[in-house]
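Predict structure. Chain length: 181.
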Amino acid sequence: MEPDRYAVFDTPIGACAVVWAERGLVGVYLPEDDEPSLRRRILKRRPDAREAEPQGAQREAIAAIVALLDGARDDDLSGIALDMRALPEFNQRVYAIARAIPPGQTRTYGEIAAELGEPLLARAVGQALGANPFPIVVPCHRVMGAGGRAGGFSAPGGVATKLRLLQIERAPLGGSPGLFD
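Prediction complete.
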């Protein structure tokens, strides 16, 4: 079996990375303080991964991620192939719902739990999103706490990064228009 491969690329918010295997992306990484830190984080989670030149589907995924982070609200990342075989089935269900949230819109943890048919599992939805290995592609930043609270965000920068991503997408925050509306 071939080792996972990864590529680091520049975006408007800093250097990001994707990691892929034969069946699709297995990870998306948001910026760290610097590129060496980003590479260390990748190799900590995937020690056998090798840096490689992205081809075909990986190159298209990178272009779509860069476009979205540059403010292209109509860019759809739902066609990016993800390899979720190693993830719990519950998380996969949560990620499928989160992927359907369009740029510039938000849902709550409770709304996703209700859509799953498990209205009491809002906290479990939050935990699944906190373990999301595909931020941006599975847009966990678009999921808020009850009453429009930001909730958590496990990527570097925490809630500040989440709010920055929502501002890029011009999402209304706190019931008012987004920064660019």
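Summary: The longest strand covers residues 14-21.
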